[in-house]
Amino acid sequence: MADIAARNPAGHPTQQRSGLHKLMQRKSTIAFLMALPLILLITILVAYPAGYAVYLATLNKGMTRFVGFGNFEFLFGRDTFWLVVYQSCLFAITAVIFKAIIGFVVAHFVHNIPAKGQRKWRGMLLVPWVIPPAMSTLAWLWLFDPSYSALNWLLAIFGIEGIPWTGEAGWARFSVILVNVWIGSPFFMIMYLAALKSVPEQLYEAASIDGATWWQRIWYVTLPMMRNIIAITALFSLIVTFANFDIVRVLTAGGPLNSTHIFGTWAFRVGIEGGDIPLGAAVSLFMVPILAVAATFILRDITKRGSEV
Amino acid sequence: MANTAVATGASTRPNYGSMSRDRTWALRWSYFFLVLFAIFFLMPPIYMLITSLKTSAEISAAKNPWFISNPTLQNYIDLLSQNQFLVFFRNSAIVSICVVIITMMISVIAAFALARMKFWGSATLATGVFLTYLIPETLLFIPLFKMFAWVNEVFGVQLMNHWWTMIILYPTLTVPFATWIMIGYFASIPKELDEAALIDGATWMQTLTKIFIPVALPGIIAATIFTFTVAWAQFLYPLAFTTSTSELVLPVGIITTLIKGDVFNWGQIMTGALLGAAPPLIIYAFLMDYYIAGLTAGATKG
Amino acid sequence: MVSMKVNRRRFVAGTAAASAALVAAPFVRSANAAGKLSVGFWDHWVPGANKATEALVKEWAEKNKVEVSMDFITSQGNKLLLTTAAESQAKSGHDVLAFSTWLPARYADQLVPMNDVMEPLIKENGKVNDTVEYLGKLNGKWLAVPATAGSQIKGPCSRIDLLKKHAGIDIQAMYPAGQAPKADAWNLDNFVKAAEACQKGGNPFGIGLGQTSDSVDSAGALFHAFGAQLVNAKGDIVVKNDQVRQVLDYYKKLMQFLPPDVPSWDDASNNKFLVSGQGTLIMNPPSAWAVAKRDAPQIAEQLWTHGFPVGPKGRYAPFLPFFWGVWNFSKNQSAAKSLITHLSQASSAEKMTNASQGYDIPSFEKLTTFKVWAEESPPKGTLYHYPNPHNHQTLSIAAAPAPHKIAEQIYTQAIQTQMVVRYAKGEAMDKTLDWAAKELEGFSRN
After folding, report:
1. CA B265, CA B275: separation in Å to the nearest integer?
2. C73-128: pLDDT as tens digits
3. In whole angstroms, what is the distance from residue A217 CA to residue A207 CA?
4. How far apart, in whole angstroms, are the C-alpha atoms of residue C208 and residue B78?
5. What is the domain range of residue A35?
6. Does a structural domain hold residue A125?
7. A61 part of a folded domain
8. Taking CB atoms and an 8 Å cutoff, what residues of chain C touch B238?
9. Which of residues 277-306 of A touch B (CB under 8 A)?
10. Contact status, residue C158 vs residue C190, Cβ threshold 8 Å
11. Closest to B9 (Cβ–Cβ): which among A29, A119, A205?
12. ipTM confidence score
C-alpha cells in the first residue's frame, strides 16, 4: 500500500511538476522527521546493539580474537545445540498451535453466549494475559512443586498418582508449554473474538441457505474471513515465543538433562553462567535470520491481501 | 465446538433456521466449556490468593493446599509495612507512566507518518518495526552494558543501576507494537477526512491532533494499556541493569528480595506476586472494553 | 534494606581519586570517590544474617570516616552472577563485590591482587583449605579473599528418628556432639543400604541430581570419594576411567532409592523435601534446619548435621566458598582492602557466623570452633559437626583439580549429575562416557 504513494511523483508527470514535486518532497521530509524518534530509538537501542552482538558472536571466548563463523561451527558440532534447536521449535510451534486452537475455541464459546454475559467472561478469561508473566510463572512453579504440588494433590483425589511436572523430560516439556499456552491464549481469544464479530452475518445466512454444515461454515466462512488476523496473531506470538526466557528460566532452568532449554535460556547458560559471551550471542542469533525471512514473507502476504480487500 | 457457528447466527438473529433445541444445547455446552476454561485460566491466581493468606507453618504442614485453616493477613501487613516494597512500587509506577507517555508520543506521531504521509522507505519501516521483536532481549543486554560503559566514559553519565534507565530501555519493547496498532487504526480512517482538512489549510500536525487523535482515541487507549502492561511486567532488563534495592522495580524486587535461595517463603512470595499483578489488573478491570476494542481494531484493520 | 545511597558523580571522582591517592590520610573524607565506597554483598538466605555484616561495615565506616553504600544481592535466579557480568562488561559498579565460587578465576584479569590482605590473615587465622586456595589463588596471586558470609559445607543433614527407625542407624552416636566422630562404619555401602531402607520405609533420602549447585556439589563429593576425575589438573580429558565407571554404577544403585523427580531438583527442592517431613536425609548447609525451626519445629528437633560417608578414596565434603574481591576499575582500592581486612578478622567472622545461626563457615583453619556450632539447638549440638571441626573429611569442590576454565564449565553445566542421570536412566556406560567426553572437549576451547 505504501508503494503506491511513494511512486506518486513518477505517476504524475509534466504539469505542475516542480510545485508538486516540492510539495511531495516537503511532505516526505516532514513525515521522515515525524518518524525520526522511532527510527532513532530502534537504531540506537535495538539495531546497533544487535549489530554489536553479531560482532561479539564472531569473537573467541576471551573476546580477544576474531574467529568468524568459528562459534557457529563449534555449535553445529554439538549435540546439545541441536537438542536446543529441536526443543525451541517444539516449544514455540506447539505452544503457538495450542494457543491458536484454545483461543479460537474459547472465542467461539464466548461469541456463542448472549451478548449480556460476554463482557464478564471475556474479562475473566483475559486475566492470565494481564498478570506479569514473572509473577504468574511463580504461581505455576508453586503449583508444580515436587514436595507441595497442589495439582498432584487434586489428582490424588481422583486416584491419579503424582505427576513429576518438572521432574521428567517429557512432563517438563509439557509443563513449560502448558504455562506458555496459559499466558498466551487469552491474547488469541481476544483477537479472534473481535474478528468473529467482524464477519458479516449475511455470509453465514448464505452458507446455511446453501445447506452448509457447521464445519463447512467454519472452514469456508469463518476461517477465510479471519485469515489475516490469524496470521498476524500467530506470527507475533511465534516471534515472542521463540524469544521466551522467563517461563523456562523460572520453571525448569532448562532441566532435567537440558531437555527444556530454549535459545534464550541456553544462551544465558552458556553466555552468563558459563562465561562464554560470544557463544551465547551466537546461540541467540541463530534463529533471527530464519524467523526474519519467515516473518517478512508472511507480512508481505498480509499486506498484499490487505490492499486487495 | 460443534454448533457454535450455527448458534452464533441464531443467538443474534433468531429468524433463520429452526434450531432452538440445538441452540439450547449449544448454549449449555458453551457454558460448560467456558467454566472449564475459566477454571484453567484462573487457577494460578486463585492459588496465589489462597497461599498468600496462609502462615508459613501451615504451608509447611502440607495439608490440603486448597484450604486455609487459619487465614491471616500477616503476609500483606509484613510486605506493605516494608519500606523497600513501597520503593519498588514507586519505581515501577514512575517507570511505567513515563514509558507510556514516551511510547505514545513516539508511536502516534510515527504511525501517522507511516500510515498517511509516506516517504522513501516508509513501507519497509512499517514492516521493520514489527521485526524488532525478532531480536531477543537476551541478545541485547551485553552490548548494552558495553554501550553504557562508553556513555559513562564519554559523558560521565552512569546508566547502570538506576531505575530511570528503564525509561530509556522499555520503549524498545513497547513502541513497535504500539506503532503497529496505531498504523492499523489510522489506516481505517477514511482518507477523505484528512484530505478535506488539508485542503482547508490545516498543517499535517493539526490534521493529526484535530482529526486523527480524536477518532483513534480507542486505539490510543488500547495501546496505552498495552504499553503499561508490558512496562509493568518487564523482567529481564531490570534484572540485568539494576542491583540496589532502591533501584529495583516491582517484579524484579519481589523475585530477588523475597525468594532467598533455598529458604522459600511461599506465603510472602505469593503475596508479593499478587500485589505486583494488581495494578495492571485494576487498570484493566476499568478499561477492559477500550483495551479489547482498540487492540483488535488496530489489528483487524491493519 | 540499607539505604546509604550516595550520589555518584564519576567524572569528578576520576580526577579526585588520583589526587586523593597522593594525600597521606588513608581514605580522605570529602565529596569524592576516596571518601566513598560501594559494596555488593551476597544476600544471605538465613533471615537476619545480613545484619551482622551491616553492623560491621557501619562500624568500619564510622571509624574511617568513609561513606559506604551497601547492596545485598541475591544469588537467586543468578542475579549476583548477572550483576558481576554486567559490572565486568560495563567496567563500573561496586568497589567490593561478593564473588561466588568460580568467579574470581573467571574475572582474574579484572581483579586487584589481594596478597597483601591474605598473607597477614593467614598468619593470624591459620591456613585456608585446599579448595579455597584452588579457587581463589592463581599463579601465586590471591584474586579475592574468602568471605565468611555465604561460605558453607554441604554435608548431610538427617532425621535422627527416621534413620533409627528405617535403617537402624544412630547418627548421634556416630557424630556425637562435642566429640570426634566415630563414623568408620559410615561408608558408601552402608549409605546406600540406609537409603534403601529409608525408601522402603517411605521416607527416602533427598539427594538432588539437577543442575544447580546443591546437586552438583553432592555429586562432586561422591565423585571425589571414588577418585573419579573427568579432567585432570593438566587439562587432559580422562573421563573414560574405572573410577568414573564405579561412581556411575554406585549412583545408579543409589538413584533407585531416591525420589523419581530428583533430576529436576533445584537448591530449594531438597529443603522443602526435608521440611515437609517426607525425607530422611538431604545434603545441605543448615538453612533447611533453620527453616524447619521456624515453620516445622517438631521436625527441626530431629535434625542432625553430620559428615559424608567414606568412599574408596576417602571422605569428601563439598565446600562452597564465597569471596570478596575488588575490581581493578574501582576508584578506591585501598579503602576496599581495608574494609575486607576488617570483615575478615576472627571477631568479625564470629559475628557473621552467629548471625547466620552457624550457616557461615570462615575458610581459615583456626576459625572452625566457634561456640555457636556447639550451642545451636534444637537438638543441642545439631551443628557441632557442620564446620568439620575434627578435619574428619576433606573439603572439596566438584570438578577440581581441572583447570579453572574447564572446571567451571563442568560445574555450571552440571556434567557430573547429567552423566549420573543418563546412565541411571538406562543409557549404556560407553555412550554416557562418550557424551561426557564430547562435552568436555567443547569446554577446552579458548
Report:
1. 16
2. 888 778 888 899 889 888 888 999 999 889 999 999 999 999 999 999 999 998 89
3. 7
4. 32
5. 2-56
6. yes
7. no
8. none
9. 277, 280-281, 284-285, 288, 291-292, 295-296, 299-300, 303, 306
10. no
11. A205
12. 0.82
